[in-house]
Task: inverse folding
């Protein structure tokens, strides 16, 4: 096949949605990858490119991905028509279709809205939609790409040809991901003066701070020139200076973050079980400065907890076996929530139970609460009906309890994962597939300590949960892995005692962080962390969204 002809014109009308020239390679590949992360999805139309090929700005991405909700959206006739028009370069009101407001709720549109928000501050969506064109290195959907790099397809050549043409006509090219691969396929990109590589491959937001100096302006100028007099600028007057763009109106770096539609003024929350119901700390710090408070675990009925001793200090950490003592969902609504409602800080209610019905019952009671922003499901509890098998270390139980809780929940559902498993990403994916809106990780690590004089356990429960600085490197590794394994946001925690700890989690890709054990010995830790993150953003001239996921790793 010629590289110049569009292979997508020959896509069959019904699944399998593969071109005749790709068919053999894909089927052979899928034989080896039967329903795993690298399975090429043949029931969905591929998305090798998005938009008008002649657009002035061309974005080079890696692959269209595949996550929860994608299949359902792809089966809608309206969406299939849009995808088909795009594949054959047919006319569309919004050629870059993910900017079409009618598709705003699709996973793809949500992803792109985040990446393009700086440009959307400058241009109307419809204008931007005819000014940018994205080419994916790999055209078909799969959950992950890394393994699929060995799969070479004829159809890829057409995408590479579109990029060659873009270079030949002088388009501004933005390499969002995998510069090495792109240069290998399109050598003309090497040394091309109008090619810009984004700094952070994990968070490919098109923002001034994510380009080398001049890159963002080059993109904006190219679009303005293309739109000519028609451009309706959202921001009137001259372009703001680069050094002002990471700040809010009051000149401070913008630390706001959003998780599952919940807005947080900053990304620092206090962790469940370490901050009571909030009020206990009201005389110690200004609670309104916090991004959020996660209250201690609430069950449907009140619980007394374990006998003493329940806490023991270890080297750089702490063992606890409090036993999830709490006032129960009903009293929480009556006695604790009214105070939390008076704060501007977000209120997340941590929920637990000893059977799936317990979890659902607690949520059903809490659903009546006014002022709850989200639930955090603690799945580190033993299921009493399954011989004490811990929910969070059994994939089936995880799916069961998350799906049932999601069905019951009136507010977004964050699922808090246990670190006491071999592969935490499997649990992250199971929770995502069952409907979790976000993940919190991690809970405490099971540990123990012994008094050698009396030869008795230091904690009455014998084993207990380890938290504090001792767990940070392991917890950070788990956050890093999960961020890469799922599409939903991840909230990181474990051993955060200062701003640098929190920044490590954010750079690894956490959308927010929680402070736990440190509250016991330094109740102002969260406030110091917020100030430290602000100072870092100021010094680096970044806004928070540019820090999140900005870890630099070899391609
Ligand atoms: C005393 C104590 C009580 C806790 N109670 C809960 C709880 O009720 N629900 C929950 O999900 N996590 C609970 N946790 C876990 C913390 O929220 C957090 O996940 C963990 O301590 C790791 O963070 P850190 O190292 O900053 O403390 C508790 C931790 C401690 C130390």
Result:
């Amino acid at each position: 096949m010629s590289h110049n002809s569009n292979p997508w014109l020959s896509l069959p009308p019904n699944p399998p949605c593969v071109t005749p020239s790709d068919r053999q390679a894909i089927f052979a590949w899928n034989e080896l990858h039967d329903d795993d992360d690298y399975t090429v999805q043949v029931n969905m139309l591929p998305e090798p490119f998005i938009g008008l090929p002649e657009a002035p700005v061309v974005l080079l991405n890696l692959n269209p991905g595949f996550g929860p909700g994608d299949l359902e959206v792809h089966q809608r006739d309206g969406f299939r028509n849009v995808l088909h028009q795009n594949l054959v370069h047919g006319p569309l009101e919004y050629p870059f279709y993910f900017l079409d407001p009618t598709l705003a709720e699709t996973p793809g549109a949500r992803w792109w809205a985040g990446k393009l928000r700086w440009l959307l501050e400058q241009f109307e969506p419809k204008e931007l939609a005819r000014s940018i064109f994205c080419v994916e290195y790999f055209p078909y959907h799969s959950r992950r790409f890394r393994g699929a790099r060995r799969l070479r397809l004829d159809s890829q050549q057409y995408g590479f040809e579109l990029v060659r043409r873009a270079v030949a006509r002088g388009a501004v090219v933005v390499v969002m991901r995998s510069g090495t691969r792109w240069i290998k396929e399109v050598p003309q990109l090497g040394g091309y003066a109008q090619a810009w590589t984004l700094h952070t491959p994990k968070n490919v937001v098109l923002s001034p701070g994510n380009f080398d100096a001049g890159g963002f302006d080059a993109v904006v100028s190219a679009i303005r020139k293309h739109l000519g007099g028609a451009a309706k600028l959202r921001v009137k007057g001259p372009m703001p200076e680069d050094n002002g763009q990471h700040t809010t109106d009051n000149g401070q770096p913008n630390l706001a973050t959003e998780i599952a539609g919940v807005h947080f003024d900053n990304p620092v929350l206090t962790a469940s079980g370490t901050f009571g119901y909030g009020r206990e700390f009201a005389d110690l710090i200004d609670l309104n400065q916090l991004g959020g408070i996660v209250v201690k675990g609430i069950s449907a009925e009140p619980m007394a907890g374990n006998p003493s001793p329940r806490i023991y200090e270890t080297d750089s950490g702490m063992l606890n076996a409090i036993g999830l003592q709490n006032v129960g969902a009903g009293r929480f609504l009556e006695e604790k929530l009214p105070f939390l409602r008076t704060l501007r800080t977000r209120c997340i209610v941590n929920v637990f139970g000893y059977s799936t019905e317990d979890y659902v019952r607690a949520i059903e009671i809490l659903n009546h609460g006014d002022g709850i922003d989200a639930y955090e499901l603690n799945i580190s509890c033993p299921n009493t009906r399954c011989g004490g098998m811990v929910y969070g270390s059994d994939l089936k139980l995880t799916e069961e309890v998350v799906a049932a809780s999601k069905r019951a929940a009136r507010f977004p559902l964050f699922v808090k994962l246990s670190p006491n498993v071999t592969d935490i990403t499997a649990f992250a994916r199971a929770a995502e597939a069952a409907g979790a809106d976000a993940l919190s990780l991690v809970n405490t690590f099971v540990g123990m300590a012994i008094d050698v004089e009396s030869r008795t356990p230091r904690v009455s429960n014998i084993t207990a949960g380890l938290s504090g600085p001792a767990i940070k490197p392991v917890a950070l590794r788990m956050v890093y892995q999960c961020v890469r394994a799922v599409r939903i946001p991840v909230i990181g925690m474990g051993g955060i005692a200062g701003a640098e700890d929190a920044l490590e989690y954010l750079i690894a890709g956490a959308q927010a962080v929680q402070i736990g054990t440190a509250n016991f010995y330094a109740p102002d830790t969260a406030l110091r962390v917020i100030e430290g993150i602000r100072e870092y953003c100021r010094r680096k001239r970044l806004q928070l969204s540019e820090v999140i996921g900005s870890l630099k790793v070899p391609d």
